[in-house]
Amino acid sequence: MVTITNQTKLSEIILANPDSIGAIAAIAKPLEKLKNPLLRKLMASRITLSEAANISGCDLDMFRQALIPLGFSFDQEGAVNEKEEIEKKPQWLLTIPDDKISDFDVRPVMESGDDPLKAIVKKFGALTDGEVLCIINSFVPYPLISLLAGKSLTFTAQTGPSEHHTWFLKRFCEVDHSVEKTLGKALIMDDETSFAAALANFPEPAVKRIDVRHLLMPAPMQTILDALTGLDDSDALYVYHKKVPVYLLEELNETQFAVHVLNLAEGEVRLLIYKNG
Q1: Are 67 and 20 spatial neighbours (Cβ–Cβ below 8 Å)?
Q2: Which residues contact 195 (CB under 8 A, 6 or more apart)?
Q3: pTM for the full predicted model
Q4: CA dihedral in degrees (140, 142, 146, 152; nearest 10)?
Q5: Which residues of 2-14 are buried (b: 16+ CB within 10 A; e: fewer)?
Q6: Which of 155, 147, 152, 149 lies closest to 172 in space, CA to CA?
Q7: pLDDT exceeds 80 at position 183
Q8: pLDDT given at position 54
Q9: Rounded to the nearest 5 degrees, what angle is found at the Cα of 70, between the Cα atoms of 6 and 82?
Q10: Of 13, 87, 140, 151, which residue is least crowded by CB atoms under 10 Å?
Q11: Which is higher by pLDDT, 253 or 91?
């Protein structure tokens, strides 16, 4: 019997019993991504059981019902009282002047059927270090929190029955200025000649091409990861991108994939990804 709480990471549950992948994925459509090995690697180590319930819009009891038959038990006393935790604002947020905090209520945008991610990223990018963007939404935006994790300090509080505020404090991020140093040996920043030489190692039928330049985040990353799951050992994935995808590269640095990056011009980046041994 494995004891877990609402704060147990999905990766710990999967490690204890791999059958939990299918059980959790069957609870709601947003959780079906766990069936994809690369997306599972991205999600599972970052999301707790409670966060998974919020993302999927499901009650924690549904997770209990799915996991108890697999040998899991739930420690209610050891579970964190989330309402009490989120009401404890961190010191950095308490000391930020009001004129350094910009609010962005994305609920009207979402109700209209549009994706607010592009506008959020633009507003966050316009901040200077030490300024804060507060996103107002009807749920906790866990994918956005993961997306901006390397560039911000983050805090979320529930301010009403269906209202959540998430504050992002912009801070200097080393990865923006030295991608190669941060992402390690699996990444190769090429010029046009060396990139062409790397591409020449693969006959054209073995090169699978995808264009993600038209997609809004985080769809480019998910599309690339999906393509990599079906990539044969002798194939390469050629990606047309509009920027160097830092967060994708961080994930791939921990896998068997090698990545060549060619930064042609503003908005024109090429990636060549293949299995390295």
Answers
A1: yes
A2: 260, 262, 270, 272
A3: 0.44
A4: 0
A5: eebebebbbbebb
A6: 152
A7: no
A8: 73
A9: 5
A10: 87
A11: 91
Using CA atoms, how far residue 2 sits from 12, 62, 74, 78, in Å, is 10, 18, 8, 14
State both tokens at 104: 């962005």
CA distance 79 to 5: 5
115 vs 186: CA distance, rounded Å: 33
Euclidean distance between CA atoms 155 and 145, whole angstroms: 9
Whether 249 contacts 189, CB under 8 Å: no
- Higher-pLDDT residue of 265 and 39 is 265
DSSP line for 107-118: HHHHHTT---HH
DSSP 179-212: HHHHH-TTEEEE-HHHHHHHHTTS-GGGEEEEE-
What integer best gives the mean pLDDT of the chain?
81
Contact yes or no for 72/6 (Cβ under 8 A): no
49: nearest Cα among 71, 37, 35, 65 = 65
CB 9 within 8 A of CB 47: yes
Q: How many helices (H) and strands (E) does the chain have?
A: 15, 11
Question: CB of 269 within 8 A of CB of 263?
Answer: yes
The confidence score (pLDDT) of residue 176 equals 40
35 near 21, Cβ under 8 Å?
yes
Evaluate if residue 6 carries a pLDDT over 80.
yes
Handedness of CA 229, 49, 16, 61 (dihedral sign): negative
